[in-house]
Amino acid sequence: MFQSIFKILQKKAKTFSFKEEVLAVQVCGYFKEEIEGLFGHNALSLISSCAFKDGVLSIKSLNPTFSQELQYEKEKVVSFLNKKLKKDIVKKIVFRA
Question: Is the model's pTM score more than 0.85?
Answer without folding.
Answer: no
